[in-house]
Amino acid sequence: MRWQCAGILEPEDIEMLERVLRKMLPPNATADEREWLASLLVKAFQSGAADEAALVAKIADKSQSTLPAG
């Protein structure tokens, strides 16, 4: 059983989240934008998006909103 529902992230989960974060961040992202996207990724993962494709799809839906001002 995975512990993601309990909020515990395994090392391989963190590695996957980092890969997705690097893929989705623009090169000139501000610290606020990085933090915003990272928090969306963790929330998406904890709500059931358990692979890279699902995370990207879920975040793409959310990215319709405005990025935080940097």
What does this structure look like?
The protein is mainly α. It has one domain (4-62). It contains three helices and no strands. The protein has helices at residues 11-24, 31-46, 52-62. Helix 1 (11-24) packs across helix 2 (31-46) and helix 2 crosses helix 3 (52-62). The radius of gyration is 12 Å and the shape is globular. The protein starts with 10 loop residues before the first helix and ends in an 8-residue tail after the last helix.
- Uncertain stretches of 5 or more adjacent residues: none
What does the largest sheet look like? none
How many angstroms does the end-to-end distance come to? 39 Å
Count of separate DSSP helical elements: 3
Q: What is the number of independent domains?
A: 1
Tell the overall outline. globular
User: What is the radius of gyration?
Assistant: 12 Å
Give the % helix. 55-70%
Order of helices and strands: HHH
Structural class based on helices, strands and sheet pairing:
mainly alpha
Arithmetic mean of pLDDT: 84
Give the assembly state of these chains. single chain
- Kindly estimate the percentage of residues that lie in beta strands according to DSSP: under 5%
Question: Strand tally, please?
Answer: 0
Secondary structure blueprint with pairings:
Blueprint: H1 11-24, H2 31-46, H3 52-62
Helix pairs in contact: 1-2, 2-3
Name the features.
0% strand, mainly alpha, 70 residues
Briefly characterize the structure:
This protein has three helices and no strands.
